[in-house]
Amino acid sequence: MNQNPHLRTSKTAILLLNLGTPSAPTPKAVRAYLKEFLSDPRVVEIPRIIWWCILNGIILPIRSGASAKKYASIWLPKLGSPLMHYSRLQAKELGEKFSQQGHTVLVDLAMRYGQPSTQEALNGLKAQGMERLLVLPLYPQYSATTTASSFDEVFRVLGTWRDQPELRLVKHYHDNPAYIAALRDQVLSSWDKNGRPDFAKGDRFVMSFHGLPKRNLMKGDPYHCECLKTGRLLGESLGLEPGQYIVTFQSRFGKAEWLKPYTASTIEKLAKEGCQRMDIFCPGFPADCLETLEEIAMEACETFLEHGGKDYRYIPCLNSNPQWIEALSDIAHDHLHGWPLGVESESDLAKRNERAELVERTKS
Q1: For position 258, what pLDDT does the model report?
Q2: Quick one: 210 and 272 in the same domain?
Q3: pLDDT at 104 exceeding the cut of 80
Q4: Which of 9, 168, 289, 324 sees the fewest Cβ atoms within 10 Å?
Q5: 268, 295: one domain
Q6: Residues 295 and 188 in one domain
Q7: Beta bridge partners of 109
Q8: pLDDT value of position 1
Q9: How far apart are CA 166 and CA 163, in angstroms?
Q10: Which CATH number belongs to the domain containing residue 310 in this structure?
Q11: How would you class 212 by CB atoms within 10 Å of its CB: exposed for 0-12, middle for 13-18, buried for 19 or more?
Q12: Which annotated residues bind Fe(2+) (predicted)?
């Protein structure tokens, strides 16, 4: 009996999407990554000809070597890129969570820039029988620079397929209760180990989100508002008063005005004003990366201590916190409603194939 090529086990898949990372902490690898990243018109909204000259004539020759040194400072022995390590771990543990729940759901990871590429991941899922796809970005707060760009790439790849899967997208989950609970658990775990800040003495809790040019907000990007809401909900869940926590924005680049307040200047200001202890957390980054480990855990710490601060405590990102994996599962289930989460048995598939053959013989 010949198997009908259109009759195969039908599977539901989840594709986690993250931004990306160089393959190695070397100038060559970093240059290749930065070129792909900074060539995306969703990321840099400057006329292409002007930006091409700036990127290739100034930024890549200068920043590649400097950035490579920064990546080298946070590279994990035997594990490589922290972002890649923790993102892969999240995909693995999410798949195991579905398996523990009695479901058979394909789970994979793709990076918007670098490897594994979106095309590579989607082709792999297709080869395993994917017929339904949930795209779940590891960006809790929506931005055109991250979420939309990742969706663009999914659409580009699927646009080349003749037989496309059913498709659902998770736009954001910045105020999802399970996500907020996972953030709270991560902070409280740190405070259980290191003691809670004494807010009566002027200690502060800073939540640092990745920054964007202010013009993105003015053009309608909801990212700024969603970051503020995440910060408010996390602050409330921790039982903090508005003055005890501060939402800031990091990673400013160029001379244009970006979302304020800036993380670096806020840390310096608080230290100068007599803040002795600062706990800092990056709720918008589900996995530790260059921006959290080097910029916040290292550079910002130096700034705080240099300007009079005494006790600087970086709280790691969610990474593989079990409550975060539980939150990812909850978010996925919310969007998978109505889709089968199992695999058709071989006997049922054989029966379908026999019925299809019978219909074909009847037609002939």
Answers
A1: 97
A2: yes
A3: yes
A4: 9
A5: yes
A6: yes
A7: 16
A8: 44
A9: 10
A10: 3.40.50.1400
A11: buried
A12: 210, 291
Is there a binding annotation on residue 294?
no
Q: Report the alpha-carbon distance of residue 112 to residue 290 in Å, rounded.
A: 16
Are the C-beta atoms of 91 and 107 separated by less than 8 Å? yes
What mean pLDDT, rounded, does the chain reach? 94
Cβ count near 364 (within 10 Å)? 5
Residue 224's domain spans which residues? 177-314
Q: What is the pLDDT of residue 352?
A: 53
- Do residues 241 and 301 both lie within one domain? yes
Instruction: Judge whether 335 is annotated as a binding position.
Output: no
For residues 110 and 161, state if they share a domain: yes
Structural domain tally of the chain? 2
Residue 266 lies in a domain: yes
Q: Are residues 151 and 279 in the same domain?
A: no
Residue 291 has pLDDT above 60, yes or no: yes
Average pLDDT (56-72) is 96
- 261 and 288 assigned to the same domain: yes
Residue type, 88: R
pLDDT above 70: residue 103: yes
- Looking at this protein, which amino acid is placed at residue 190? S
* d(C-alpha 251, C-alpha 291), whole Å: 7
Taking every pair of Cα atoms in the chain, the longest distance, rounded to a whole number of angstroms, is 87
Same domain, 246 and 197: yes
Tell me which of 253 and 329 has the higher pLDDT.
329
The one-character DSSP state at 145 is: I
